[in-house]
Every structure is written in C-alpha cells, then in structure tokens.
Design brief:
17 strands, elongated, 6-stranded antiparallel sheet, alpha+beta, Rossmann fold, GTP binding, 7-stranded mixed sheet, single chain
Length: about 475
C-alpha cells in the first residue's frame, strides 16, 4: 500500500486553515499516487461531503476550490453560497480568497475533472487545468496561479468541522501528580486472582502505523523514568513489526518487572493476503506462538513449525486484546478493513477474551487537545471519533480510550502518563474479567483452577472501569 501524505507545508496548512476555520483535513486523493485522471478523482472524492482542492504548480502557487457540497456526477450545475476559490503564494502573507458571482453555479458536477468554470482541473485527464476568470468567479490569473497552467501535484481533502469544547467532560480524570503516582503504584502491585499467573498478557492489534509499538515504548518510558525505544516503531507504509514480540516492562532502570506483558504483532492490512493473518492471531490468543516468531506473508504458523509452542498454560494465553487505532484515520477506514476487524472480533469473542480500543494520536487529530491534553475528554471532535469507532467496530463506548503516545518529546509529561496509566489500569481490570470467567467457560476445570487461586490474594484498588456520560 503506497504511503499517501500531504504536500502542504506547515505554513501553507496554516494559511489554508485561516480560510476554512476550525476544521480537520483528511487527505482523500493525491494525483501523483492515484493518477491524474477524472476517474481516479471521482473514485476517491465522490460523496465525501465538504472538500477542498489543493493544486500545485512549478511557479510555487498552491490554489484550488472549496465546496460544502458533494461531488455526485449528476451532470448539473451546483449552487453553493459557501464555495470559494483561493490561492496561497510564498510572496504573500495572506491567502487570496475569491467568492462566487451571485446567482451563478459554483461548479458543474460532471464526470470529468472538477469544473469550477473559472478553474477546470485535470483537463483531458492530464496534469493541467484551464483558467477562465469571470466564469463563476472573478480573479486576476497572475494572482491566482501565476499563469502557469501545468500541475506538479493535485490533492483533495475532506473538510470536517472540529466543534468546540464541551462544558463538562464526558469522562472525569484527575490531572494531578497524586493521580499519576496512585495509578503507577496500583499497576505495579497488581496480582491476578489465579496464583500461577503472575503477569497479565495483553495483545496489541491494529492497522499499520496506528501506534502499537509506540504505545509500548511510551508505557515503558513512563515506568522507566526516561525515553526508551525498545520496540521498533516507524511510519513506513508496510508493517515495521514483522515478528511476534512479548515485552516486559521494568519499573526503573534494572528495576523489578511490572505484572504486565505487552505483546506486539504485525500491523493489519486491508487485503486478505497482506499483514497479520487471522489464523496466526488465533494461535497467539491460545499461546502457541513463541516470542520472536517471524510472521510469514504466505501462510499462517503450522503446528510442525519451529515457532509453534505445543504445550501451553494459562500464562501463555492472551488475557486481554487491545485494538489500536489512529484517531486521525477513523473516517478513512475502508470497508475491507472494517470487515477484517469484524472477523477478528468474532474470533476473539468466541475465545472469551475481553477487548479494549485505544485511540492514539489524539493530539494530532484535534488542535484543542494539542494545546492542552486535559481537553481530551472535553473535545467535541474526540468524543465524535470515539462514538464512530464504537459504532463501526461494535465495541462499547466505555471500552474506547483516547491516549497520546510519546513521539517527539525528550522529557516525560504528567498528563500523557496519566492517560497511558489509565489505559493500562483498564487492561488489568479486563484481564481480571478473563480470569474470573475461566470457571464459567470451563466448568470441568473449576476444581483445578481453585487449586491455583491464592488464599492470600488481595486485589489492589485499580481505577474503576470507566463510566461514560453520553452528551
């Protein structure tokens, strides 16, 4: 799968946002990747709601058009009072904004490239455009595009309003040093209710680039007291993780192990023959996959293979599954990826394994959260994305947890640690549910399990399972 990234510089993004307001841009189409054709444009951009075009030329102009309407190829003129053309050039401090001529259509919704009258993009399915100032919009050609009609790049973004801050957070979090210390202490002193199980095993599952390995590194850093990078993380289009890895977390350099093992896997990809195989996932659930097993793209792990562990105990099994999703890409989940998640959820439910969903990169998804992480449960946008994930993946909203991984920081941050520790506490709560359900799921094993239960067991008080207020 090709990596599709924005061609806008930070300054260009800032100027474009000054025209669009408090919005999030989702890159739908990039002509250098998808093709400079009308068919490719419509395949990626039809029925996407409000969109903005960004066209680039060799003169250094970034220009295009915004519409609040859908592209549907209805072959009719579309009226849109909110539509406008714009231009951003390096020599100007402010972007040029051109509104439509009153009473005229904003664009003609045809099967060719986007046709705004004054600007007709992807003309003849080539990296070029037509310029007709006065047709629907009035501008000076030199100011709009420098009279350079060849395109070096052409992109389309969906424009999604972010909303403001809720008057009351939809979850209550104490953002204090005491809260951080209490959470860390509760996690370090965790004990399962089964005497022979000393560490909860949690499996991280998610698409390529969602932040699974970065989540482990962040948790490890928070407990270690400094930034670490034990798990390989990156931004490649293919999964950086190609092995099954089990990671133990140490409380401080050379310190004792935290009673939690985080297991990392290959990233999920939408195609059936790419990324983590569901049969491999089931083998991981059941404890049959050895640490450092190298995943094969051609076939799942066989019982006869060296990486297969035949004799397993409850210690080897997965006690909680955590789905990891990039908040910035929630709206871009394809049906193929949703179908893959549904198949995984079905297998996971059949094995009775509790599941949690982590929303990563919340600071990148919402500027209000980037300004202050304490806004994460007051952000209308983050709450909306949490609900979308809950509905599309069939996971209760109470199991959806926003987090921020460490990515570019050199120092730890109290608020980041609190969100991370809150997520870990919920994982341990859900692992407890798995242990408690063992008696119910396998009545014949009750007597045997009771032998393993600790008579001196006293569960430390973890955070209560998150309540959610629907606003």
């Amino acid at each position: 799968m090709s990596v599709v990234t924005s061609g806008l510089s930070k300054d260009q993004q800032k100027k474009l946002h000054s025209l669009l307001g408090h919005v999030k841009l989702h890159l739908l189409y990039k002509a250098s990747v998808h093709g400079f054709t009308a068919a490719a444009f419509h395949a990626h951009c039809d029925r996407q709601g409000p969109t903005v075009i960004t066209a680039y030329n060799a003169t250094g102009f970034v220009f295009g058009a915004y519409t609040s309407k859908d592209y549907t190829q209805c072959q009719e003129g579309i009226s849109d009072e909110r539509a406008f053309l714009y231009s951003i050039s390096a020599g100007e401090d402010k972007p040029l904004r051109v509104g439509g001529i009153s009473g005229q259509c904003a664009f003609t919704d045809v099967s060719t490239g986007p046709n705004y009258g004054a600007l007709v993009f992807l003309n003849e399915d080539k990296p070029q455009f037509l310029s007709n100032p006065g047709t629907g919009f009035v501008f000076q050609a030199a100011a709009m595009h420098g009279e350079d009609l060849a395109l070096t790049e052409f992109e389309v973004y969906r424009v999604e309003g972010l909303g403001d801050l809720l008057a009351k957070p939809w979850r209550n979090i104490q953002w204090t040093a005491e809260r951080r210390q209490q959470s860390m202490k509760a996690i370090r002193s965790y004990q399962s209710c089964i005497k022979t199980v000393h560490q909860a095993r949690v499996l991280l599952v998610g698409p390529v680039g969602a932040g699974k390995s970065s989540f482990f590194n962040s948790i490890n850093s928070a407990f270690r007291g400094n930034m670490t990078s034990q798990a390989i993380a990156g931004t490649a289009g293919k999964s950086v993780t190609t092995q099954f890895r089990t990671y133990t977390i140490k409380a401080g350099k050379g310190g004792e192990a935290v009673p939690l093992i985080l297991c990392d896997t290959m990233g999920l990809e939408e195609n059936a023959d790419a990324g983590l195989d569901i049969e491999d996932l089931v083998n991981i659930y059941k404890g049959h996959v050895k640490d450092r097993y190298q995943f094969s793209p051609s076939a799942p792990l066989l019982e006869s293979a060296p990486g297969y562990k035949k004799h397993v105990t409850l210690n080897d099994r997965i006690h909680c599954v955590v789905y990891v999703m990039d908040t910035c890409k929630v709206s871009l989940l394809t049906q193929k990826m949703l179908d893959k998640f549904a198949a995984i959820r079905k297998k996971t439910n059949q094995l009775g394994i509790p599941q949690i969903l982590l929303m990563t990169k919340v600071d990148e998804a919402c500027p209000l959260v980037a300004e202050d992480l304490k806004n994460v449960y007051r952000s209308v946008y983050i709450q909306r994305k949490a609900r979308e994930l809950s509905e599309s993946l069939g996971i209760p909203l109470s199991c959806v947890l926003p987090v921020k991984n460490y990515s570019e920081e050199l120092e730890l941050d109290q608020d980041t640690d609190i969100l991370l520790f809150t997520a870990v506490e919920q994982m341990l709560n859900y692992a407890d549910s798995f242990f408690e359900n063992q008696d119910i799921e396998d009545p014949e094993a009750t007597d045997q399990l009771e032998l393993y239960r600790s008579n001196s067991y006293q569960q430390p008080v973890l955070a209560e399972r998150t309540e959610h207020n629907v606003v």
